[in-house]
Write a structure and sequence with these properties.
The protein is built from 11 helices and 16 strands. It is an alpha/beta fold. The chain folds into 2 domains: 263 residues, Zn peptidases (Aminopeptidase, 3-Layer(aba) Sandwich); 112 residues, 2-Layer Sandwich (Alpha-Beta Plaits). It starts with a helix and ends in a 5-residue tail after the last helix. 47% of the residues are buried.
């Protein structure tokens, strides 16, 4: 079954909603205009319940089906990024230094489109919980919504999410997913090295933090090659070294910063342990003091196999077998939908947006043609999971 005809009928509405949201990008949890717009559309659509103020500006709306059944959660994120837009479109951001450079405006339009259809037809049993989430990019809005008891409060049994995927080597409208880890846990480390500065011509009188920083960076590269299994996917990237002020001065301090991406907790713990050991050992070797600040970020996004298989079958009904890859390679990016999947079974899928600027690029613009596909997927996910009683 392709895009649902009724959803195709109001595709223009979805485009208008998306483009309006594109003009008013807001960051993190501080999204009052976005939340107000979503609420207005939900009231027009005629959902049964609207619950505001979850994770500050998050919303959960409920649509009741016909007959008893479980509650299925469908999630869309709606925050933007601190980027100056360069698209040149007539619906570009009106908020300087902010733009929807990741397509969350499109995700919201897709879920609103699904809500409109589901509220009209009620061709399912149980309930649908429409989860509109702030602070995916920064702040972990999904974690906060879960910590505030969303899953238990609305008795959500399973949860599903979609993210657009521009530049994929597949036609627009193709789906990608995989059972198990699909996106990485992301951690950040910062090493502060305190030495003893001095004149560049008399290094023997100093305790050089620059040399220590270089030693640490070199040693950190061995964690992947010598301490972890070669078949495991993981990434450590040193991305910043800051130190010094002049060519003839040995500085007092140096800072090393980087990112760690892993797909399982054992590997994540091993890398953290080795970083601590390397920092301590290299500091002792070079006669400096060093402190490691290791910040644990979003966990790995782990799809449950049964729900992933089901979601892939629904996607095939929408776009055909050839347009669905249910064994897509893991992505080293991160996603706070991971917190929802830690609390409930479910699946996360990518939806190809075709050619165009990549995510987080100042020229990125969501492809409105895929919104009816995403909305149809959400609808069929619900209707096939819990058919209405005859």
């Amino acid at each position: 079954m392709p895009v649902i005809n009724r959803i195709a009928d109001f595709a223009e509405d979805m485009t208008k909603w998306r483009r309006h949201l594109h003009t008013i990008p807001e960051l993190s949890f501080d999204c009052p205009k976005t939340a107000a717009f979503i609420k207005e559309r939900l009231e027009e659509i005629g959902v049964d319940e609207i619950h505001e103020g979850i994770a500050q500006t998050g919303i959960v709306a409920i649509i009741n089906g016909t007959g008893e059944g479980r509650t299925v959660g469908l999630r869309a994120d709606f925050d933007a990024l601190p980027i100056e837009e360069e698209t040149g479109v007539d619906y570009a951001s009106t908020h300087p230094g902010k733009m929807h450079a990741c397509g969350h405006d499109g995700h919201t339009a897709m879920l609103l489109g699904a809500a409109k259809y589901l509220a009209e037809t009620r061709n399912f049993a149980g309930r649908v919980a429409l989860i509109f989430q702030p602070a995916e990019e920064e702040g972990g809005g999904a974690q906060v919504m879960c910590a505030e008891g969303m899953m238990d409060r609305f008795d959500i049994a399973e949860v599903y999410g979609i993210h657009n995927f521009p530049g994929a080597d597949a036609p627009a409208g193709s789906f990608f997913t995989t059972p198990g880890p699909i996106m990485a846990a992301v951690d950040t480390f910062t090493i502060t090295i305190n030495g003893r500065g001095g004149h560049g011509a008399m290094p023997h009188e100093a305790a050089d933090p620059v040399v220590a920083a270089c030693g640490m960076v070199q040693a950190i590269q061995t964690i992947i090659s010598r301490n972890t299994h070669s078949a495991q996917e993981k990434v450590i990237s040193v991305t910043q070294i800051h130190t010094g002020s002049a060519s003839n001065i040995i500085p007092d301090t140096a800072m090393v910063n980087g990112t760690v991406r892993t797909f399982d907790k054992d590997t994540q713990s091993l890398i953290h342990k080795r970083l601590k050991e390397i920092v301590a050992g290299q500091a002792a070797a070079y006669g400096v003091e060093a402190e490691l600040d290791y910040e644990v970020g979003y966990p790995a996004t782990v799809n449950t196999p049964e729900q992933t298989e089901y979601a892939a079958s629904v996607a095939r009904n929408v776009v055909g077998d050839a347009a669905v890859d249910a064994n897509f390679p893991k992505v080293a990016g991160s996603e706070d939908f991971a917190y929802m999947l830690e609390e409930r079974p479910g699946a996360y899928l990518f939806l190809s947006a075709g050619e165009g600027a990549g995510l987080h690029h100042p020229k990125f613009n969501f492809n409105d043609e895929i919104a009816p596909i995403g909305a149809s997927f959400f609808v069929q996910l619900v209707e096939q999971m819990q058919p209405a009683a005859n």
